[in-house]
UniProtKB/TrEMBL annotation:
UniProt KW keywords: Coiled coil
Spans traversing the lipid bilayer: none
Chain segments annotated as coiled-coil in the UniProt record: 43-113
Protein name (database record): CAP-Gly domain-containing linker protein 1-like
Chain spans, region Disordered: 118-155
Biased composition (Basic and acidic residues): 144-155
Length: 155
């Protein structure tokens, strides 16, 4: 009699397990069928999102190319302007050099003319005096040390 209830309980347990397994398989089949529909919609949603992202990326690439093109154009314009300014500046510098050279030549000519005129008048060449006798300045400090004065002497 002890085996009999055990047998029934075992049989009951076995039937219960079989039922559970059968139910579980049906549930899994239903679940996979149900999951297939959301997976399909998820795939479609992801494909749509991917298409949108690719479109955005293409738009950004075009914007970047446009920006680079505009930047290259601006750089070229600025370089051309700088080149023109450099040429203009070099021209002005050359012009100033030639004007200074003309001034130097004119001043030398005038100095020679003045020297010649002074010699013709019988006066000594002022520039020659400076070369022959150089002036030196000695600083003399007075005894109380408050004041300094410059005294020129010829050697």
């Amino acid at each position: 009699t002890l085996i009999f209830p055990f047998f029934y309980s075992f049989k009951f347990f076995f039937n219960l397990c079989c039922f559970y397994e059968c139910f579980n398989l049906k549930f899994v089949r239903l679940q996979t069928k149900e999951n297939l529909t959301p997976i399909g919609s998820k795939i479609a949603e992801l494909n749509e999102s991917r298409s949108e992202l690719l479109g955005r990326i293409q738009g950004l690439k075009q914007d970047l190319q446009s920006w680079r093109s505009k930047l290259d154009t601006q750089v070229k314009v600025y370089r051309d302007e700088l080149s023109e300014l450099k040429k203009s500046l070099n021209t002005e510098v050359d012009q100033l050099r030639s004007e200074f050279q003309e001034l130097r030549t004119t001043l030398q000519q005038q100095q020679e003319d003045v020297t010649t005129s002074l010699r013709n008048l019988g006066l000594q060449d002022v520039s020659g005096d400076k070369k022959e006798g150089q002036e030196t300045q000695d600083t003399v400090v007075e005894e109380n040390g408050d004041k300094e004065s410059n005294v020129s002497t010829k050697e």
